[in-house]
Amino acid sequence: MKRIKSVTIMIGIFLLGIFSVSLYAQEMWQEITSDDEVFTQGYIQVTGRSAPGQNAYMALRAATLIAQRNLLEVIKGLRIYGTTTVKDGFTQSDIIKSAVEGFLRGAIRCGKKYYPTQGYAIVCMRVYLRGRGGIYDTLLPLLKEERILPQKGTMYMPKTQIGFTKSTRPHDGLIVDVREYSFRPALINRILTKKNEVIFDPSKIASAILIERGCGGFTTDMNKAKALLKVWGSNNPMTVKAIGVVKLTDVQVSDDDASAIFVQDKKTNFLAEAKVVFVLR
User: Fold this and answer.
1) What is the pTM of this model?
2) Helix or strand (DSSP H, E) at 7
3) Which residues are paired to 177 by β-bridges?
4) Which of 114, 113, 156 is nearest to 259 (CA)?
5) Strand partners, 278
6) What is the rounded distance in angstroms from the CA atom of residue 15 to the CA atom of residue 21?
7) What is the share, in percent, of the chain residues with pLDDT greater than 90?
8) Any residues with CB less than 8 A from the CB of 277 and at least 6 apart, and which?
9) Domains in the chain: boundaries
10) Which residues pair with 79 in a beta bridge?
11) Residue 3: pLDDT above 70?
């Protein structure tokens, strides 16, 4: 009886160990796949799991291929602008398709685990939005060449410069509060006036900065927005509230806020440095 009880306890400990390892892997390798998560975190992260009954080499290889396939599906679902996704770019351009598939081969393996008892493996893989070799670096030049990006609209010029005096401390960054609207982060997010004049788009951003920051940052918290801008060298950002959203990815601001953004940017050039953070709901 004691022996049976002892064996039962041992089995229980063994199963608990497997369960704990599984929970640990899930916690360490949390998947980042939705638009909001990807653009807020700055990377895509997926896992691939092989079928059971394989040796370590075959299981890890299979799990890697599955993770790469999962990465491709997430990338294809990313918004370029409005309702246009990377998948739409695939259908329009073999060059874009080839570039993304080649880019995936350079994805970073962020973890791997082989389970010898069951003979399966789990592999975690990640690709970054920003930085050299990231999605912005790979896709934006190709998207421009293929003309999939939105056509350049009328650039905004204020009729009057209002709201600031010479003694006012210049603002060196911008927080756009868009929590009241159905706004979606994308590879291209623009700021417009009520008349859809363009205040901010990729053409305003220096090329090196565009690769590093895209069209700015995304968060769901005002304090995090300020903290992110501080990392980018902005110590006195201005905050404006959106008055509308066009095509899910373009933010509209009031005439007064548009004028204020224009004036302050002339002083500190924060738009060219993409020191812009969108606060989502």
Assistant:
1) 0.82
2) helix 2-28
3) 241, 279
4) 156
5) 176, 218
6) 10
7) 62
8) 173, 174, 175, 176, 216, 217, 218, 219, 225, 228, 229, 237
9) 26-146, 174-279
10) 85
11) no
